[in-house]
Request: fold
Amino acid sequence: MNVEVLQRSIRGRVFSDRQTLENYSVDSSLYQIRPSLVVVPKTIKDIIKTLLFATKNKLSVTPRGGGTGLVGSALNSGIIIDLRNLDRIRIFQNHVEVGAGVHKGSLDQILEKHGKFLGPNPSVGPYCTIGGMIGTNASGSRSLKYGSTIDNLLEVTIITASGKMLKLPSRTRLAQSVVKLARQVDRQKYPQVSKNSCGYRLDAVSNISETQKIIAASEGTLGIVVSAKLRIYDLPKKRILVILGYESIKKAALDCQKIVKLRPSALEFVDHNTMKNIAARFPYEIKCLLYVEFDANIGRNVSLLSNTIAGQILYKFSDKKSIAKWWTARNSALYFSLKNLLSSKTLPHIIEDATVPLHSLADLLLLAEKTARRHGVRLVMYGHAGNGNIHIRLASKNKCKKTINTIAKEFFTEVIAMKGTITGEHGDGIARTKFVRMQYGHRTYELFYKLKNEFDPHNLLNPQKIVLARHSRDRQQLRL
Ligand SMILES: Cc1cc2nc3c(=O)[nH]c(=O)nc-3n(C[C@H](O)[C@H](O)[C@H](O)COP(=O)(O)OP(=O)(O)OC[C@H]3O[C@@H](n4cnc5c(N)ncnc54)[C@H](O)[C@@H]3O)c2cc1C
Reply:
């Protein structure tokens, strides 16, 4: 492989030094894979030339955004292509055209000046990119009202493995084959949930005008996103945040079913361990909290809320500063949980993103507690309760791979039986790709192979994510 040849042919940078390869060997998961090269393209032509170089040298190509992914989806052994220079933003009345490398934080700042906002809001805040959000089908607290990335993706432009630019939706051969495969899907095999980042979202495509949605949650395995058109919303005039306290997680979960009927903009859960890190006083008997945010019909909704719920209203905030402070505490739950559990004892995030129909939320929370007790591991839980999506962090001194896999298999079997998904927003990555077949069954998984083959017949793009090569062995590499 002659790296100089690639460097001379592109305007961007090519890195092969030890330090850069180390930096790109990790993301926000516990996995590590050292790439062979890192390319930071300046132009679309650079991306195309990199793909041709990779094909010639039999290297894989994996796109990377902010590296905030939690399941190792941006890690691979070939070329990592960092899209930070694709940073154009154009704002229109109801949508934004945005480059894949734009950081969510930069977009938020510009949108705010125009009185607008983007619906999906991952708790990682400003650090993730649009390409990464599309790659994982990211969502966040406000996805309850405004949808996940897939629901807001109006158009996407990708570079395919063969180096061709493709806009979706369009009447192209590839778009037509997506529709053909989508029509063969048994939609009953898909989880019956409000958000899902597992496998390929063939269920979201019913005709050619929806073919852009297949790129959401595809983790860079079908094409490299260079730009997208995303729906935007008017900033609400006012928001109110109500903090509810509960004596048991079951009561909190049951209340969620009543609260969603009031159309809150967010409905979040934090457990007792996470509460300990919030700088506020809570009555002794309170074991968990719900955050309920409204951004419309506020007076009416708050009074309906107090008549509807079994929990106690502990705090109400309508000033921007207090609301932001309480959201910061909620959004730091992952950091708190790692601090509480001591990161040296943290188990890989495999069962951390399950999502179930809302009527099964209590069962999901109780299942997590039962699993932790049975395997003698410690547990922290928080998440997007209104969507039935709970993040579960486990810690144990016993980091044996067999135990981790046993926990995951037992847990996922029950989640799937509840018609849930093994991942609501973080994706499959290294952590969960081997469970995708279990989620969908043999027939749908075969359609996934066909889809991958249509877009990327030589398995160049982010191999071993979502679908495993037919005779692959488990290659997970933990950084523990
Ligand atoms: C503290 C913390 C909190 C988080 N909270 C949330 C949350 O509330 N909700 C949520 O959904 N997620 C959350 N996440 C996960 C993460 O932030 C999201 O998955 C995010 O969308 C990843 O964006 P990124 O730019 O960092 O992507 P990366 O991690 O760099 O990549 C993620 C995936 O997208 C692919 N990808 C990246 N760019 C492109 C491109 N241009 N074309 C094609 N594929 C591409 C990569 O190959 C990879 O498969 C959290 C993470 C952390 C660390």
In short: Residues 169 and 211 are 5 Å apart (CA to CA).
